[in-house]
Amino acid sequence: MKVSVVERILSANDRLALENQTLLDAHGVLGVNLMASPGAGKTSLIEQTIDALQGCLCLGAVDGDIATSLDADRVAARGIPAVQINTGGSCHLDANMLKRALSDVPLDEIDLLLVENVGNLICPANFKLGTHFSAVIASIPEGDDKPYKYPPMYTGVDVLIINKIDLLPYLEFDLDYFSRGVEILNSGIVTFEVSCKTGEGIHAWADWLVEQVEAHTQASE
Ligand code: MG
């Protein structure tokens, strides 16, 4: 049977993703892949998460963008190790990019690695990175139709974070319609409603991360 080039690329990526996960496991690090459209608040969520977990967990971050180190600079300013990946035009991170970045992350010093994918609701859904969880961040200004228009992104993730909920009174966003779309694709998905601006809901998300890190540590002992 003929195997398409795309399938071969994806299976090579899966192998590297497994290597990344093995490396993270060996250092007792839980990895989370954060995906979203541009401007949904990936970097802001990382900043808020760092602040919420200060003194509780040691974090590291890898930030993917087509160009600049703006996001890694923002995250590093919060006092955690942050590595920027510039994809040079590619619309997603892949396992090989993360593998290279991991060699610059002090894995022995951290418990939790937050990976900020390139802002895009399409391509990142196709490429495993080797993180233990993947999350999609939706935001109120994007509109309530995104689960219907980008089903693979909503199907393949473990966690949904709805950001900018402080804007709900001001924008046309039907939370019930949005949630019904999510429910069809990913029934019962762990969901957090947050505002990176006001801090609402951040502690519930941070507490969930602590629980996952503890479970991961116990599983690898
Ligand atoms: Mg960003």
Quick gist of this model?
This protein has helices at residues 5-26, 42-52, 70-76, 95-102, 146-149, 151-155, 175-185, 202-220; strands at residues 30-36, 59-65, 82-86, 112-116, 133-139, 159-163, 190-193. The chain has 221 residues and is an alpha/beta fold.
Write a structural description:
This protein has 221 residues and is an alpha/beta fold. Helix content is 39%, strand content 18%. Helix 1 (5-26) packs parallel to helix 4 (95-102) and helix 2 (42-52) crosses helix 8. It starts with a helix and ends with a helix. The relative contact order is 0.18. The model has no long low-confidence stretch (mean pLDDT 96). The protein binds magnesium ion (MG). Magnesium ion (MG) is lined by residues 42-43, 71, 116.
What does the overall shape look like?
globular
Label the structural class. alpha/beta
Q: Quick one: how many beta strands?
A: 7
The largest sheet, given as strand count, sense and whether it forms a barrel, is: 7 strands, parallel
Secondary-structure element series:
HEHEHEHEEHHEHEH
What does the radius of gyration come to? 17 Å
**What's the CATH class, please?**
Alpha Beta
Tally of contiguous helical segments: 8
Examine the coordinates and then state which fold CATH places here, giving the name of the CATH topology. Answer: Rossmann fold
Pick out the low-confidence regions: none
Q: Order of strands in the sheet with the most strands?
A: 3-2-4-1-5-6-7
Give the helix proportion (percent range). Answer: 25-40%
User: Approximately how much beta-strand content do the residues carry?
Assistant: 15-25%
Superfamily at the CATH H level?
A: P-loop containing nucleotide triphosphate hydrolases
**Ligand set:** magnesium ion
C-alpha end-to-end distance = 42 Å
What is the level-2 CATH architecture name? 3-Layer(aba) Sandwich
The overall pLDDT average reads: 96
Number of domains: 1
